[in-house]
Amino acid sequence: MTSEKSGQDARTRAAAMIRLAGIGLTDDEAARIEVTGLGLGHREIEGIQIATMVSTERLAFKAIALFAGQTMPEHRHPAVGDDPGKEETIRVLSGECRLYVPGEDTLSAGRIPAGKEDVYTARDETVMRPGEQLTLSPGTWHWFQPGDEGTVVLSISTTARDALDEFTDPAVVR
Ligand code: ZN
Fold first, then answer.
1. CATH number of the domain residue 104 falls in
2. 75 alpha carbon to ligand 1 midpoint, in Å?
3. Tens digit of pLDDT for each residue in 31-88?
4. Domain limits at 100?
5. CA of 1 to the centre of ligand 1 (A)
6. C-alpha of residue 27 to centroid of ligand 1, in Å
7. Residue 172 is assigned to a structural domain of this protein
8. Is residue 173 part of a domain?
9. How far is the CA of 142 from the centre of ligand 1 (A)?
10. Residue 58 class from Cβ within 10 Å (0-12 exposed, 13-18 middle, 19+ buried)?
11. How many angstroms does the Cα of residue 33 sit away from the middle of ligand 1?
């Protein structure tokens, strides 16, 4: 299977998950779902599917689908000029989402991708189910992963500038 084909499969699967979670997507929006392995070469382990519904100079509203076994690597949204950086609320629509921020190491439900212990430094775990949410202050390191059934979460935020996101893992290409 070519990566283009598997990317299309992931896009179709993500669109179905997002729609099942109650978010209507036009076919155009579904076709534009971003599927990325962040340049790490194993999208099923570290990767993400993102449907962008709103992205203006002031705010962004996205639905993120994570398949079972996938992890969104540790990152933060840096300050740009007078803007302190993206404030982001992660709200769960379906499945379970384990979210990690800096603090006491309480990691127990989740697991760090094999061999990546040094680039997953935030270990304060919050396990969230549908309807639960957490707001990340600008500049807060975070990473997240689903439970066994995958998850769909909303990312509700101030301005998104994905290309500027900083990742702990220097191998990431955004
Ligand atoms: Zn983020």
1. 2.60.120.10
2. 6
3. 999 999 999 999 999 999 999 999 999 999 999 999 999 999 999 998 988 889 899 9
4. 3-167
5. 30
6. 25
7. no
8. no
9. 7
10. exposed
11. 17
